[in-house]
Amino acid sequence: MAALLEVKNLKTYFYKKRTVIPAVDGVDLKINKGETLAIVGESGSGKSITSLSIMKLVPSPAGKIVEGEIILDGKNLIDLTEAEMCKVRGNDVSMIFQEPMTSLNPVLTVGEQIIEVLMYHQKMSKVEATKKAIEMLEMVGFSRAAELINDYPHRLSGGMRQRVMIAIAMSCNPKLLIADEPTTALDVTIQAQILDLMKDLSRKFDTSILLITHDLGVVSEVADKIVVMYGGQVVEQSPVDDLFDEPLHPYTVGLMNSIPAIEGEIERLQSIEGNVPSPENMPKGCRFAPRCSKAFDRCFAEAPQLKQMGKERAVRCFLYDDGGAKA
């Protein structure tokens, strides 16, 4: 299967006075055409900065992509000027943010915000763009789309605003859709509807999805592959079914154990001791070692590399140095 997006050795650092903060530190990703890849991890693990780096929207001048390649359909986005990236954003790559109320412009109607994108990227006339905007709103589930285009965002519920965001993101038939915690602010019923909608549109437009989330329940519903991040690095990558059947990295095991189960008599959920380390003060050696129940001396002195475990799996852990888990 052909790769749509390849991220190679991505390093995004923030500069604070005399301190260098490695928010994303050597990340590698690959998304094939029509595939959904999920990035999971706790807050502070580098998920959102990775997605902003792909869009080249890292807050500047404090933040900077210092190394790596971001190759979209054969084109390295790192080499593009800001003017060239403006043509890529919204057209080839679109992004859905986790809080639609702050992402939508409160002083423009819903219709104006979709029409603007279509006129800029697709060079449509206003009449053509208005017709297409109504079609997109109908496609994401609005029955009275022709009336809705004249409404302002504050008149819509959270779920309706997120549907509008998806309509805007999909209006130019992008090759890649980046969804950063798209269901966080929504109740469970609406979450399911939004996820189903994203899956349907992905199939219809053959769009690849990069899903940023901390919710493993969401991942199991929509993703084909999963990347687990911790401390700005990838610690495990795997097809979704394999990871749920047999998580390899101790951090992934901890995340899986913290999911509530319907069956069984466990009264108290397991938790991972400690907190995600501050990017300003990463521990020496393995970044998860201070919280890991399986850590030994080498883990505190030496940083593990990402090790291939078969064709589609990889893990960053010394437990797998000989190609298989040590007791």
Overall description:
The protein has 327 residues and is of the alpha/beta class. 32% of the residues lie in helices and 23% in strands. The chain has 12 helices and 12 strands. A hairpin with a 2-residue loop joins strand 1 and strand 2 (19-32). The two termini are 36 Å apart. 39% of the residues are buried.
End-to-end C-alpha gap: 36 Å
- The amount of helix comes to 25-40%
Measured by DSSP, the beta-strand proportion falls in: 15-25%
Strands of the largest sheet, in order across it?
6-7-8-3-9-10-12-11
Say how many strands there are.
12
Sequence stretches where pLDDT stays below 50 over 5 or more residues: 323-327
Structural class: alpha/beta
Rg, Cα atoms, Å? 21 Å
Instruction: Please tell me the overall pLDDT.
Output: 88
**Overall form:** globular
SSE pattern: EEEHEEHEHHHHHEHEHEEHHHEE
